[in-house]
From TrEMBL:
Keyword Hydrolase attributed: yes
Domain AB hydrolase-1: 174-378
Entry protein name: Alpha/beta hydrolase
GO MF annotations in UniProt: hydrolase activity
Transmembrane segments: none
Pfam families cross-referenced by the UniProt entry: Abhydrolase_6
Keyword annotations of the record: Hydrolase
Keyword Flavoprotein: no
Natural source organism: Microbacterium terricola
Length: 405
């Protein structure tokens, strides 16, 4: 007897359906686990972006020769750079100035110590290589005053380095993420020589200024209000023209200030050193450096900008508002950008894009090799002349000013 095809399929179907159901259950459970893992990793990555943190060690001390006053570090893209830098260490000496490279090979770099290290010093192996060269205002040997800027969250400490002949031009210096106003000390001698008073400010959640309720960064979306308060301080103390200078994330803060300040008439221009101009570009780049799967990166950036993730991120980041390339038409002030195409942390893509979008306002000076926020350290002469020439070009100072700085 010939069994009908339909009957044959029907007879086999109970076992097949059960097997498929079991497979689907296993697959869905596995998929749920994968998605949960991706989601958790994304939220952890998102939380890390907005959480203030100290320096992360990025090199190790291999040898310390106190007789010759040299130090040998593991080789990285930064530790072999020419120029003057700093090293933050663990142990009895927390901060060391480093000079020129004396020797190097594939795995190590020997540099001259510019900070004397005693024979009895004991340094931890882990260290962080930094462009932050001056550690305190006293090191500049220029007159300065400790002041407090009254921000919306309370008094925030700042330094004022007055211009040698008074004057009514001030520069408000805004430091980057995970650092303090000492990062900006490198710029003070140049502006002092140009006859410009320097105001180095702190802002919410940087460890010096008052903390916000959440204690987290908003990547410029609220920090700019503290810089606005600094402009008001400058105006009340005689400033008639104000330059803003932002380093790294401080660049994002400075740009938000320029876009939203009630004192736009006072702002004469903006100087940006290795700036963040579009956070999504930076975060995507950082995720690739960390070898995060694209799904994790996309979800992390999405979580940072979403209300549903605020219990962890403590507030949605308004990425569209922080994207200054997209808002280029709103810019009104001259902008000088100093950025290395070999930044290695904040890619220069958005800086190029902004210069292309507003060639009438934006002057981009491209460096190479210099890495992130280390342009002064790598090529102080070019860094200084770039700022000096631009400041003079926009009519802030006399062409003779700062010629010897």
């Amino acid at each position: 007897m010939v069994v009908p095809r339909r009957a044959a399929m029907t007879g086999a179907s109970p076992l097949t359906i059960a097997a498929v159901r079991t497979a689907l259950m296993v697959l869905s459970t596995a998929l749920a686990g994968v998605l949960a893992a991706i989601g958790l990793a994304s939220l952890v990555a998102a939380r890390r972006v907005v959480t203030p943190a100290g320096r992360v060690p990025d090199t190790r001390i291999l040898d310390l020769d106190t007789a010759a006053q040299t130090i040998t570090l593991t080789r990285t893209a930064d530790t072999g750079l020419p120029g003057r830098y700093a090293l933050f260490t663990t142990g009895t000496s927390q901060y060391l100035k480093l000079g020129s490279v004396l020797a190097e090979d594939a795995g190590s770099v020997k540099r001259k110590l510019l900070t004397h290290v005693a024979p009895t010093a004991r340094l931890g192996a882990d260290a962080a290589f930094s462009g932050w060269y001056y550690d305190s205002a006293d090191e500049l040997q220029l007159p300065y005053t400790d002041v407090a800027v009254q921000t919306p969250l309370g008094p925030a400490p700042a330094w004022v380095f007055p211009a040698p002949d008074g004057g009514d031009v001030w520069v408000v210096q805004v430091h980057g993420r995970g650092t303090t106003r000492a990062e900006c000390l490198r710029a003070v001698p140049l502006f002092h020589a140009l006859g410009v008073t320097s105001l180095l400010v702190s802002y919410r959640n940087d460890g010096e200024a008052p903390a916000s309720r959440t204690g987290t960064y908003t990547l410029g979306a609220t920090e700019w209000r503290d810089v606005e308060a600094a402009i008001e301080y400058a105006r009340s103390h005689g400033a008639r023209r104000v330059l803003l200078m932002g380093w790294s994330m401080g660049g994002a803060v400075a740009l938000q200030t320029a876009l939203q300040s009630r004192h736009g008439d006072l702002i004469a221009g903006v100087v940006l050193e290795s700036p963040v101009i579009d956070w999504r570009v930076v975060l995507d780049y950082q995720a690739k450096l960390a070898k995060l799967p694209q799904a994790v990166s996309d979800l992390a950036i999405g979580a940072l900008g979403a209300e549903w993730a605020t219990p962890l991120t403590r507030g949605a980041i308004p990425f569209d508002r922080l994207d200054v390339v997209a808002r280029a038409a709103e810019l009104q002030h001259p902008i000088l950008i100093l950025h290395s195409d070999d930044d290695g942390f904040v890619p220069s893509d958005a800086s190029h894009a902004l210069a292309q979008a507003r060639p009438d306002l934006v002057d981009l000076r491209v460096f190479d090799t210099a890495r992130h926020a280390k342009l002064w350290n790598y090529d102080q002469e070019r860094w200084s002349s770039s700022i000096r020439d631009w400041v003079q070009a926009i009519g802030i100072t006399d062409a003779r000013a700062g010629a010897d700085s």
